[in-house]
């Protein structure tokens, strides 16, 4: 079961990713192949919010390892 979700910054509420979520459970990493739209700002391997600069996760190549306290998921 796949669905499109929005990954939002917890500080300002700005959309960082539109992501194709597969299955149940939490978002621990966002796979590059499933990111539908990417609004993030990259500084080296850091993935940041485009509006406030909050650190959302770390780019590991094939996926973005997400910081659990830095984002929220909405439909």
Which terms summarize this structure?
single chain; 75 residues; mainly beta; five-stranded antiparallel sheet; four-stranded antiparallel sheet; 0% helix; globular
How would you summarize the topology of this molecule?
Layout: E1 2-9, E2 15-22, E3 29-31, E4 35-38, E5 41-43, E6 46-48, E7 55-59, E8 63-66, E9 71-74
Antiparallel strand pairs: 1-2, 1-9, 2-4, 3-8, 5-6, 6-7, 7-8
How would you describe the overall organization of this protein?
With 75 residues, the chain is mostly beta strands. The protein has one domain (2-74). The protein has no helices and 9 strands. The strands form 2 sheets. A 5-stranded antiparallel sheet has the order 3-8-7-6-5, with no helix packed on it. A 4-stranded antiparallel sheet has the order 4-2-1-9, with no helix packed on it. Strand 1 (2-9) and strand 2 form a beta hairpin. The protein starts with a strand and ends with a strand.
Mean pLDDT across the residues is: 95
- Low-pLDDT segments, ≥5 res: none
The residue fraction in helices comes out at under 10%
Number of domains: 1
Cα gyration radius (Å) = 11 Å
Report the structural category.
mainly beta
User: In which order are the strands of the major sheet placed?
Assistant: 3-8-7-6-5
| Biggest sheet record | 5 strands, antiparallel
Tell me what portion of residues adopts beta-strand conformation.
Answer: over 45%
End-to-end gap: 14 Å
Q: How many helices?
A: 0
Q: What is the β-strand count?
A: 9
Write down the overall geometry. Answer: globular
> SSE order in H/E notation?
EEEEEEEEE
């Amino acid at each position: 079961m796949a669905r499109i979700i929005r990954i939002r910054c917890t500080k300002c509420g700005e959309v960082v990713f539109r992501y194709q979520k597969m299955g149940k459970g939490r978002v621990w990493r966002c796979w590059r192949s499933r990111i539908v739209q990417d609004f993030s700002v990259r500084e080296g391997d850091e993935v940041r919010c485009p509006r406030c600069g909050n650190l959302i996760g770390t780019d590991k190549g094939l996926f973005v390892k997400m910081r659990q306290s830095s984002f929220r998921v909405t439909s």
